[in-house]
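Researcher: We're teaching a course module on how sequence relates to structure. For the next exercise, students receive a sequence and then see the predicted structure as tokens, so they can try to spot secondary structure elements on their own. Here is the exercise chain.
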Amino acid sequence: MAMLIQFSPDGAGIKLVIAKPRITIGRDTDNDISIDDDLVSKRHAVLEVVASPDGEGRVDYYLQDQDSTNHTYVNDERITLCKLKNGDMIRIGMNNFRFVDEDEGNLKETAKLRKTWIPGVFVKK
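Model: And here is the predicted structure for the students to work with:
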């Protein structure tokens, strides 16, 4: 299962499961991940899950900046498009996220997620 872990100033982490092929990130409330931060654009970035070209049932995760005013950073480098790997640190505005891919892109494990009645909570089948 892949997720973003958002770190708060007190060090606690909020897990955001990647359970859709396309996740929008920004300040606007209609984004999949809405961030209340004036340094974040309304439509800041998009995270996409793409079938890996190796054809072995794996997926790759890409983060793309959406021409945001304050840019998107992965491991402190400004990006326009970046293939994410387990452990990458993402900065959007004043918010820090760690990308975690527990299954290292295994599509079979990723496909076993199902949504629960609790908003934003997914479980393995």
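Model: If you want an answer key for the exercise: Confidence is low (pLDDT under 50) at residues 107-125. The radius of gyration is 14 Å.
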